[in-house]
Specification:
CHAD_dom_sf; mainly alpha; disordered N terminus; 310 residues; CHAD_dom; CHAD domain; globular; single chain; 2 domains; 11 helices; CHAD domain-containing protein
């Protein structure tokens, strides 16, 4: 499994200390520091306690930070922001095996054989140890130290609220508005759609405090459900493609494929659920502009975006 769903543990994230009185640079620094603080706390848990759940928190923090860099990059030093995002992506990839095995165990534990679950747990713990070693390396610490020093120097004039509104407009428009377009998507396109949903979800969490009289909570909840459904669909795609875990005996891999296929809802059912959630999103008010939502007939076309690997 090359990508994992994110369990509902994001509530551990401290609120971002931003307000409508900030300029763009101040907002960027506050959001990026929040992400770095989350990452630092989770890294400590991994390196000192071998906490496998903290691996997930590290990956969430890295993802949030990469999205923040993509969001604000054009307003600050875009070239350096892109370089920082690439470095963070490499770090996230180094943590992926431990988290992916953890997700597998969570999904199959009730029905899987004791032998399979125990063996996966051993492999997971080995990967957690490798992840802890990676996070404790001097070059990892140096990368994050340089990143914090860089972001503390970033300045950008202009009021934060109009910048935030335009960003949310842009991210909203990137989601599909036609049912037939969703049905025609292959597994890779559906995975990229999940990244777009995640990007909008995190941007909403970052920027909601800027709009003092708006209620972003229903929108965040809707996006979280949409992201979860798309994650399930991705897990099923991996299962049907013949997922295999290195160092796992062939009979265990056969059991694993059967379990994942059995546990997943049908692709058609999931696509219908995703379609309904996308329709609700299309017709929901743009809470940051206090107006009714766009419909299929009135939405402008989405502009291309190359920052979906966050």
């Amino acid at each position: 499994m090359s990508d994992c769903r994110e369990p509902k543990t994001v509530e551990r994230i401290a609120p971002v200390a931003i307000s409508d009185g900030m300029n763009v640079g101040e907002g960027f620094r506050a959001i990026a520091r929040n992400c770095l603080d989350q990452l630092g706390t989770a890294m400590t848990l991994v390196t000192t306690e071998g906490d496998h759940e903290a691996i997930h928190q590290c990956r969430v923090a890295i993802s949030r930070l990469r999205i923040a860099l993509a969001l604000f990059g054009p307003a600050v030093d875009q070239a350096e922001a892109k370089r920082q995002r690439r470095r963070l992506r490499r770090l996230a990839h180094a943590l992926a095996p431990a988290r992916d095995l953890d997700v597998l165990i969570e999904r199959i534990a009730p029905e899987g054989s004791v032998q399979l679950v125990s063996h996966l747990a051993v492999l997971r713990d080995e990967e957690v140890s490798r992840a802890a070693a990676c996070l404790a390396r001097p070059d990892t610490i140096h990368t994050l130290t340089v990143l914090r020093a860089w972001l503390d120097k970033q300045e950008a004039a202009g009021a934060l609220e109009p910048f935030a509104a335009k960003a949310l407009d842009r991210y909203r428009k990137s989601l599909p508005r036609k049912r037939r377009r969703l049905r025609a998507m292959d597994d890779g396109e559906l995975h990229r759609l999940r990244l777009k949903v995640k990007r909008l979800r995190y941007a909403t969490g970052f920027l909601a405090p800027v709009f003092r009289n708006a209620d972003a909570a229903p929108h965040e909840h809707l996006l979280a459900r949409l992201q979860d459904k798309l994650g399930t669909l991705h897990d099923m795609a991996v299962a049907h493609s013949g997922v295999a875990v290195e160092d796992l005996a062939p009979e265990y891999n056969a059991e694993l494929r059967a379990l994942l296929t059995h546990k997943g809802a049908s692709r058609g059912k999931l696509l219908r659920s995703i379609s309904r959630l996308l329709k609700r999103h299309r017709h929901a008010p743009r809470w940051w502009r206090d107006e009714t939502g766009e419909t299929d007939g009135t939405s402008p076309p989405a502009s291309p975006d190359s920052s979906l690997s966050a």
